[in-house]
């Protein structure tokens, strides 16, 4: 929880600074009837960098956790990493890294379009994770007329939102 608080605090500070810096560069374009940015704020890559570093931290912690569990063969480590969602965290890291690279290298309009796509995709993935966790919590607390749920009940509950 401490790393999350630090990452969000740093990101929020740079987000406020970036919002303040971008205001003078916001211009209405009468040809396309919408506003556009003529420059990117220098604080934007730092804001995205804090989130990207946090995602990298999550991946490292997940991998270290997989190796610290008792296992008898290498396949056990891969099974533990799959169970912990390492692939999902790696996908989120790649998305955030693309946003970071666009904030550093891209022009202002493409940068903000890419960020909108990245944030929407990350929000969808996070929502699906939350639904899966809630479904697993539901199956754990369900009452089955005196019997324990089997693995098929767990699979059905974890995929109920599909």
Describe the structure in your own words.
The protein is mostly helical and 162 residues long. 73% of the residues lie in helices and 5% in strands. The chain has helices at residues 2-22, 44-68, 74-84, 86-105, 108-141, 151-158, and strands spanning 26-29, 34-37. Helix 1 packs antiparallel against helix 2 (44-68) and helix 5 packs antiparallel against helix 6 (151-158). The longest helix is centred in the last third of the chain and has 34 residues, at 108-141.
Distance between the termini: 30 Å
- Tell me, rounded to a whole number, the average pLDDT: 77
Number of strands: 2
Total of helices:
6
Structural class category:
mainly alpha
The biggest beta sheet is recorded as: 2 strands, antiparallel
In terms of DSSP E residues, the strand content is under 5%
> Which shape, going by the Cα principal axes?
elongated
Q: Number of domains in the coordinates?
A: 1
Spatial order of strands in the largest sheet: 1-2
User: What's the SSE pattern?
Assistant: HEEHHHHH
Indicate the percent of residues in helices: over 70%
Oligomer state equals single chain
Topology (SSEs and partners):
Elements: H1 2-22, E1 26-29, E2 34-37, H2 44-68, H3 74-84, H4 86-105, H5 108-141, H6 151-158
Antiparallel strand pairs: 1-2
Helix pairs in contact: 1-2, 2-3, 2-4, 4-5, 5-6
């Amino acid at each position: 929880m401490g790393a999350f608080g630090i990452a969000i605090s740093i990101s929020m500070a740079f987000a406020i600074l970036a919002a303040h810096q971008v205001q003078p560069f916001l211009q209405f374009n009468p040809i396309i009837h919408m506003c556009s940015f003529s420059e990117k704020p220098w604080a934007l890559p730092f804001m995205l960098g804090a989130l990207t570093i946090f995602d990298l931290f999550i991946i490292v912690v997940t991998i270290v956790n997989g190796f610290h569990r008792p296992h008898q063969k290498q396949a056990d480590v891969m099974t533990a990493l799959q169970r912990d969602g390492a692939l999902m965290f790696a996908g989120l890291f790649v998305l955030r890294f693309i946003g970071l690279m666009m904030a550093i290298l891209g022009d202002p309009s493409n940068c903000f379009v890419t960020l909108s796509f990245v944030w929407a995709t990350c929000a969808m993935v996070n929502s699906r994770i939350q639904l899966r966790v809630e479904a697993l919590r539901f199956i754990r607390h369900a009452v089955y007329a005196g019997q324990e749920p089997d693995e098929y009940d767990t699979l059905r509950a974890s995929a109920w939102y599909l």
